[in-house]
Amino acid sequence: MKWLKDAYLDVVILLFIVLFAVYTTNVLEVILWVYTSLLLLSKVLAIFMPSLQRKANKSSAPPLFYHIIYALTVAIFFYIAKYYLAGAWLIIWIISVISFSYIKKK
Question: Is the entire prediction scored with pTM above 0.90?
Answer without folding.
Answer: no
